[in-house]
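Recap from last week: sequence in, structure out.
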Amino acid sequence: MTDRLRVNEQIRAREVRVIDDASGKQIGILPPREAIAMARERNLDLVEVAANANPPVCRIMDYGKFQYERTKKEREAKKAQKVIEVKEVRIRPKTAMYHVGFKLNRVRDWLKRGNKVKIRILFRAREITHSQLGRETLAEIAGDLADIATVEQAPLMDGKSLVMLLGPGPHKGGAEAARRAVSNARIRPPTEEQRAAMPASTSVEDETETVETASESVA
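Predicted C-alpha cells:
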C-alpha cells in the first residue's frame, strides 16, 4: 500500500522549504499557510515529501495525479517481479536412470522457466541403510543437468529421504564438478540454518509408484 504524505493543512511544521514540482526550482522557506495559498492559486496542492528534513521539504503539485502515477508504477513493478516456484520430484533409490530420464525432461523445462527444483530420493524400510545408492543417483542427476542446473544445496537427510536443491543456471565447472559436489557431500540431517534456508516446494511430482511399476514390467 502506498504511504500517505501530509498534504495542505495536514502539514504541521512552522516553516517549510517549498519547491515548484513542475520546474524543480526552489521557491524558498515559507510558512505552510502562505505556501498552501500559493499552491491553491494554481489549483494545486502543497505536499510534504521530506518530513525529516530541516525544515521539511514540500512540493507544489497535483497530489491526485501524483498518487495515481505512483500507484501505477508500484503495480507495474509488482507485475515485473518474477515469481520463482520450487518444484519437487520424488524418485526411489533403485529406479533405473533410464526411467529417471523421463522425469529429468520435466525438470529441464522447469529450470528453463527459472524455477528451482528439489530432487527427493524416498527410502522405504531398511533402504535407508543404503543411502549411498541415493547419493549416487543424485550425483548422476546433477551431472546430467549441469548444463542448465546449479547444485544450490548438496544432499541432506530429511527424515527417510535424501534431498538435493537445484537452481537455474549451469553449474560452475560442468558435469564433473556437479557430480563431485554431490558425491563428496557429507550426508547428515540439515542444521537449523539449512532447514530455514531450504525453500518449501510449491508443487510436487510424485510418480514413484508409476516409475517402479514401469521398471518392473520392463524387467
